[in-house]
Amino acid sequence: MSFQRAARAALAGQSFRSRVFVAVAVILAGLSLSCGSSRSQGGVPDHRAYVTEPATGSVLLLHINGSTGAITAGAQTPPVQNTSPNGLALLPSKKFLYVANSRADTISIFNVALDGTLTLSGTPIPAGPGPWAAVIDPSGTYLLVTNTPPNPSAPGSVSVFSIDSGSGALSEVAGSPFLANANSTEILITPSGKFVYVTNPGIGMVTAFSFCPPQMASEPQCSGATSILAPVPGSPFFSGAGASGLAVDATGRFLYVANAAASNPSPYQSTTGNISGFNIDSATGALSPILGSPFTSTEGAGPTALTLDPNGRFVYAATTGSSYSIWCFTITSTNGQLVAATSSPFSLAAGGLFALIDPLGNFFYIGSSSASGIAGYTYDPSTGKPTAIANSPFSTGTAPGKMVFSE
Fold first, then answer.
1. Which of the pair, 25 or 286, is modelled with greater confidence?
2. Averaged over 110-137, what is the pLDDT?
3. Closest CA relative to residue 188, chosen from 234, 122, 244, 121
4. How far is CA 239 from the centre of its chain?
C-alpha cells in the first residue's frame, strides 16, 4: 500500500486532531524512507563504502546490501586525469573523505552528503611525494599519509595533518613529513591511538612510531618526544621479504604483517610468503616476535593484504589469483599465535589490493586488479570458512585501489 493510500485510510472517520496526527506520522515515515534509511528489506542495516579508481582518477560509491552482502555501484566522482587516487580515509563523523592522489602528490577532500555522494571541497592540497595509504587517528583529529617516492632510492615518509572538524580543512603539523625508511607503503594506528606502524616492503621491515599529539604528551611513550611522531626504540623491526599488509587485534596486543616474498623452511618450502606475528609492548610500542612466528600456509604464494574479524578470532591473508588464495588462521587469545583453520588455504577468487570485513562482521571483501574488482564472501563464525556471495565478484568498472566502509 502506498503512503498516500495509507494516509487516506487512516484519516477516514477521524477527528481533526487525529487526522493531523496521523497525517504527520505518515509524512514523517515517508521522509524517513526517502532520505535513505540504512536498513535493507530483511531488517539488517545496509552499508555504504567508497573505493578509489586509480586508472580513472575518481572515487566510486558502493551500496552494500546488509542481508546478502551484494555490492551495487553508486555515484562516481568526476574523473581527474594524472592523479591516480589510492589510499582513502573517512572521518569518524562521516562528513569528510580524504583521498591520497599518488601520481599528483596531492590530497583531495570530499564533502559527504546524507545520501553518501561526494563533492570535492576546494582544491586538492599538496602532499609528500607519492602519497599512498591514509589513516585517521581514533580521535578523528589527525590524518596520516604514507609517501612512497617513485625513485626507489629516495626515503619514504609519513605526512601528518591536523583536521578542522568543521570545515574538514587540513593543516600539516610541524616537522611533517617524518622519515619512515625506504618504500613506506601501508600504515596502521593502534586502537589506543598510541602507536603507528608502517611497512617497508623493499627492506622487509616495519617502521614504528609513538603518536604524540599535545593531548597525549603525558603518556609514557611520549616522554621526551619533540614531535608528533617519535621513533620507537629499536625501529625499524625486521618482518620478512616484501612486508606489506598490516593488521592489529582489537586489544592492541598483537600486530600481524604479511610478508609477500618471504621464503619458508621445510616442510613449507613450496609456499612463498608468510605472516609475522608480533607482541606490542604497551609502554613503548616496541615489537617482539610471537613464539612460532612467522606463520605460513601449506600452499599458495604472495600474501599482501590482511584483515581480522571483529571478534578477533580469525586472521585472513589474501593473495592474487584463485589457487590457494585465501589463507585463514585462528588466533590463540593468550599469546597471539596463529593456527591454520580447517581446510585452509581456500582456492577462491581473491586479490592482493585490500582485505576488509564489514563493520558488523558479516561479510568479507577482497580487492583484485581487474574490472570485476571486489570478491565478496560470507564466512563461518566457528570455522572461518569463506563462501562466495551470489554474483561475486562485483564490478568496479576498472581495477580498484583501496576501499573504506562508511557505515
1. 286
2. 96
3. 244
4. 21
217 torsion bin: left (phi>0), alpha (psi -120 to 50), beta (else): alpha
Task: Write the CA distances from 246 to 132, 181, 259, 369, integer angstroms.
Answer: 14, 17, 10, 19
Q: Are 370 and 29 in contact (CB under 8 A)?
A: no
Question: For the segment 58-88, what is each residue's pLDDT rounded down to a tens digit?
Answer: 999 999 999 999 999 999 999 999 999 999 9
Query: From the CB of residue 238, how many other CB atoms can be counted at a distance below 10 Å?
Result: 13
Secondary structure of 94-154 in the HEC alphabet?
CCEEEEEECCCCEEEEEEECCCCCEEECCCCEECCCCEEEEEECCCCCEEEEEECCCCCCC
Q: Which residues face 90 on adjacent strands?
A: 97
Please give the grid coordinates belonging to residue 356.
Answer: 576488509
Q: What is the pLDDT of residue 43?
A: 63
The Cα 390–Cα 407 span in angstroms is 22
- Give per-residue burial for 180-192: e unless 16+ CB within 10 Å, then b: bbbbbbbbbbbeb
The domain limits of the chain are 1-35, 36-405
Amino acid at 249: D
How much is the mean pLDDT over the chain? 89
Band the pLDDT of 260: cuts 50, 70, 90: very high
HSE value, Cβ hemisphere, 13 Å, CA-based, for 307: 22
Q: CATH number of 36-405: 3.40.220.10, 1.10.150.20, 2.130.10.10, 3.40.50.720?
A: 2.130.10.10
Nearest Cα residue to 379 out of 298, 295, 310, 322: 310
What residue has cell string 591520497? 100
